[in-house]
Each structure stands twice: as structure tokens, then as C-alpha cells.
Amino acid sequence: MNSRRVILCAGTGCVANGAWKVFAEFQTRLAESGTSATLTADHTACDGHVHVSKSGCQGFCQMGPLVTVEPDGILYTKVQPADVAEIVQRTILNGEVVERLLYVDPATRRRCRGTAAIPFYQRQTRFVLKSCGVIDPEDINEYLENGGYAAASKAYREMTGEDVCKVILDSGLRGRGGGGFPTGRKWDLARQLPAQKKYVICNGDEGDPGAFMDRSVMEGNPHSVVEGLMIAARAIGADKGYIYVRAEYPLAVQRMRKAVEDAERMGILGENVFASGHRMQCEVMEGAGAFVCGEETAMIASIEGFRGMPSPKPPFPAQKGLKRRPTVINNVETLAQVPRILNEGPEVYRQLGTAQSPGTKTFALTGHVANTGLIEVPFGTTLREIVMNIGGGVTDSKGKISKTALKAVQIGGPSGGCLTSEHLDLPLDFDSLRTVGAMVGSGGLVVLNQNTCMVGVARFFMDFTQKESCGKCVLCREGTRQLLALLDEIIEGRGTAGTLDLLEKLGAAVQKGSLCGLGKTAPNPVLSTLKYFRKEYEEHVFDKVCRTGHCKALIKSSINAAKCKGCGLCVKACPSGAISGEKKKPHKIDQQLCIKCGACAKACNLGAVEGIHA
Amino acid sequence: MEGNQAAVSPVKRFERICAILDSYSRHPSRLIPILQAVQEEYHYLPEEVLTFVATSLGVPPARVFGVATFYAHFALEPKGKYVIRLCDGTACHVKLSIPILNALRAKLGLDEKHKTTPDLMFTLETVACVGACGLAPVMVINDDVYGLMTPERAVRLVEEIQARESIA
Predict the structure, then answer these.
(1) Any CB–CB contact under 8 A between A171 and chain B?
(2) Residue B123: φ, ψ to 5°
(3) Minimal Cα distance from B28: which residue of A?
(4) Can you tell me the ipTM of this complex?
């Protein structure tokens, strides 16, 4: 009797790597093999069949497409259509392992059979992401079979709004969108207001570059978000919810829409939720590409059909929000935690994380790190654990793992700051990060190696916030533009001691003079890099040197005479005729003519061109 | 793509917009989904259409133009048949997305101001993050995501499309 289950990761990363082709190949090969494979997610027909289904993001994006075979607990990585025949023949029909497709731990060179043996997974605590990567996100039945909507049913049938608020307050759940405000308090505030109509909104406008946690949850387990939103509505007495999803996430939009439709079809959402007499409707709204709409009041304006510009708080949305009614806005990840907290109780939840920041946090671990992907760890986990152990170490410019390659970890995106190797043992939580000038933000963790110019990083974020500033507050609108201009001065070699002072002063002013989080936090990347990498700024300003060679204007390219054999390849490659020299003798670059394009470095086979990147 | 917009008569054009407006009960609060639906239909927001939408919703044209120019997703100029969106999010940026942008610009003869080729074949844009950071640097052509890009691979992808188009 063959009752295996094949789960294909269908997250964005794996799809980009060709997961659909692999899925189609499984269908063909299984049909050929004569196995009666069920390709729908119908569990009841699973016995005696091979069951192939797709899942949301399993987190290990770089290794995709990922294929899991259960109950064997085998994880195959980088599976290509050509590998499928062998998997069907050997694993599915004969229960053998295809060794060559297993993940190889780069540290130990050992082949790992499944997630249990892979450090990347082993060291995580998957609370929110538990079902992502296991259940089929487009099948409501799978969610229901795994205990889905039990918490919502309990909330609507057995609990009052006050009870729900109390459980969430007791759990200590804090908003995962960045601010870390206690969710229970927000709910209780809205609950106590005597309004006819109240609203709940799920904030899925994950705009931070380098963050994709919410995307993965919406794509991998959309029903957990719908259920969380329903419970929030029950807690405050709302009967209408909006799920605002970023337009750059088409798959998340599609899956959230399907989740809402399926829940409506099954009578979970609708006029009489769980026969409790309560009404609950849900609508998915697609954003239109404005980062500032992640801010609560701007999001409300956007839902009302206006430009997404923030308004002053107070009144807080919980008091006067959408259509001037009490409105609770929660982030995707916050809401996705709610069903389990209700099911398992606040005490169980509090066992994870720290006293002040209970629970787990998902992080998007990216940049110069061996294992990039989506991870989840309890609050209080150290940066070392995340980067070195789960991430497998920092990679240098050649992509090799190196013990000395770590320069900084950028956390919290354009609102956050940089941490350095001195912070490796800092337990990460909402409060500890604030003390070192960074913030959890939405949870993007970008590892930067020694070859990254920190002034360039600061400029990158400033360019982003400057473009995304909505223009309402003068200090944000003009200040971010000026900060960017100052950074450009430094990068282009025009900086003076005054530039650095002005950066700091203006940064502080922008923080004070802006209405919303965007402006208040926009200077953070500059101020934090100035704090921890001042020397690098000073090298740019006083010595006119960028040690990484990324700032074009500061490049002083040269040819190492000891290495140059005078082959003339660089002369041919140079578009501006800046290189000259006798054949078979070391050549020279004329700095006046050099346009710093790097063509010479690319053409040279001997690595003789220095100070410039190919 | 509805490449042949000239063939659609103005009356017909507004007929389709009326259907979109009706499906949102002509309510001003639904302005963003309405504009999204209109853009879905025409691939950009023609000026006369914006004015028409404003009149139909009973709001000043300034409000509709304000919204249409505020959000990055709305395009007031026609886009190419192939919209190339190069991700310049943090992860892609530190994994060197800008050289890819430069290579593509050189290949297509585009620059910061000119984002669409004159033959309306390609539009090249950068986006802040498509959330596929594990595969950085990432490029999206229409709906297809391509990960672990290099300038050479990006140019090759464009050449493949050009070759396909010249046959078609």
C-alpha cells in the first residue's frame, strides 16, 4: 500500500525557480507509473494513493524548488523536471532516498535527509509559519482539518468581546508591524467605544524593501489571517473587515481573495457566523504602490479612495478610523498568531520569547548570508544564532562563507538601523533593539559583508524614503531630499566636515518634524550608519576614499605592474582610450580619461587592475 | 495586451468604463479599485478617461488626478508590451541590481527619463521589493519572476523576447 504525500513548495521563490514545471512533471510521471495519484487536496481519497499537493513558502527560497515526501520526511532541494522521474521511481514507488537531491550542509558537508536534520530549520521555532509549507493554501478543507476556524468558532459562540480581549492582553501579544504596541490594549480601546459601526483592517501592505514575511504568510496560510481578522472583529464588535494587500504581491492578493470567497461559501463569513447571530464580511483590497499606505491613517485614506496621506494622531484609528468609526488595524503576522493563542491559551504563548516581547517573530533573512529565506525564532534569540547558525554564516564577495566577512546587519528596513559584530550577542526584541538605535520593524534582516559601502547603504534607504515621502510634512518632504543630497555630496567626493554635522542635525530635525512613522524614522539608516561606521564616512569625506570601491567618483583605478603582462586586453576593452603602454610591458591608466566603468578589470585575466570592480 | 487602442472607438471605450463604474456603484470611495480596473483594461490611464471618471463619480478631476499621480502603480502614459520590473529592494541592491539596470538601459536605449522604448515593446522600471529576496537580484517580466540575475542573463532574456517578436 502506497500512501505517500508529495508537497511542492509553491511560494514565489520556488515558482520563480520552476516549481510549476516540476508539478506538471509529477503529474505526467505519476500517471505513467500507473500510480493512482490524487492531485487535488482531497484527504479522504488519500489512502492507497500518492497525493501531490502544493504549499505556501517553506522559507528555504534559495534552495528551491523544494519537494517534500511524507511520511518519509525527505526534503529534496533544487528539484528540476528532469529529476522527477527518479523521485517517482525510487522514492515514491520504492521508498529509497535520492541522495544527490538532498541538502548538503555547507559547514559539515553532510547530506541532510529532511528538515529535522537541516540546521536552517532545526534551530527555528515555527509558530506562525507552522502550517505554511504543509497545508495547501488554496484549500479551505485542509485548513479546517488542521483545526482551522476552531478559535473563531469559540470566539463567536462561547466568548464575549471582553473575554477575547482579555486572552490577547494576557498573552502579551505585541503588534508585529514594527511599533510593538500591545494588541490587546488596542482591541480593548476600540471595544469600549459605544459605536454603531466598527471596522477591522488587516495591514498586508508590506512595503519595506527586503521583507517578505507577510507575503509568505498570506501566500502560505491565508485562512489564518482571515480567522485572526474575524476574531479581532469579534473582540471589538465589528462586522466588516478589509484586507489591504500590497499590489506587488499578486499571488498573495489572489490567495487572500480565494480564502475569503471559500470562507463565505462555507458560511464561515457572512450573515450568521457560526450560527452565533453575528455578521462578518470581509473584503480584499489591492494597494496601488505607495509605501506610506502601510501607515495606519494613510491606509484608511487609501481605503476611502483618497491619496494615502497620514493624518495626526490622536485621534487614533481605534477611536476614529475608517469613516470616522473605531477601527482596529493589525499587521498580517499579528493576526496570524491570534487563532493559536486562543486555541492554546495565553500561558502557552508566553512560554515563548521574552517577558516583555512574548512569542515568536518571523524574519526575512537575506543579503550576504549562506542560507537566505524566511525564518521564525522566539524573541530574545541572538543575532549570532540567526546569522551564523540558521543563516549558516556570512558570505564574502565571492560567495564563500567567511568568518571575517560580517560588516553589518541591517534590520527594520528604511525605518531601522544597522547592527554590527559587537551586537552579535544582543537578544533581539522590541525594546533591546530600540536601545541600540534600530527597530524590529517588519522584520527584514539584510546581512552585509565587508564589500558593502555603508554610505551607499544609507543613500539607498534615503533614496527610497525620499521617493516614498507623501509630501505632507515639510521636514519629511524637503528634509529627506536634502539628506539625500548631502549623502550624494559625500559619495561624489564633495563632502566636508560640515556635511557630516549637517547630516546629523538635519536627521534629528526630520525625526522631530514629521507626522508619521515614515518621516520620524527616515533618518534612522543614516544616523545609525553614522554612529557605527563614522570612520567610513570620514574616509569618504577627508581622504576621498571608498574602501569598497563602490563609490564611482572616489575610485582610483590602477594597474599592478607586478601582475600586468602587457597583453593589451584592457586597452581593447577601454571605451575611453584611457589605458596605454608598450606591448608585453606593464600598462597605465590615465585618471583624466578614465570613466571608471570597470571594463578593464573585467577584461583582465590576471587580476592586475586594482581599485575598481569589474 | 490590447495593443490596438486606436481601433477602439471613443464611444466603445467609455462604454467599457461605464461598466466598470457601475460594478463599483459609481461610489467615490471606490476610486482606487475603479482606476485599477480601468488600467487593467487599457494598461494605462488616458487623460480623457480620468476626466470622464471624475465627472461620473461627481468629484473634481483634481481629486482623480491626485490619486492617479500619487500611487506608483498608475501610469499616465502607455507602457510597453513587456514590462520589465527590476527589483531594487535592499537584498537585490546589495547583490548588485544596479549593474543589471545599466546593462538593460544600454541594451534598450533607455534612461532614467525614458522608460519605454519608442516601439512600445519594452518598459523598464525599478521596484522597491517584490518580496523574492531569497533569489536576489530579481527581475520580473510581466508576471514571470526571474531570480539570481546577472547583467548578461538579463540582456539575454531581452534578446530572446526580441527574437521571438521579430518572428511573430
Answers:
(1) no
(2) -120, 130
(3) A305
(4) 0.88
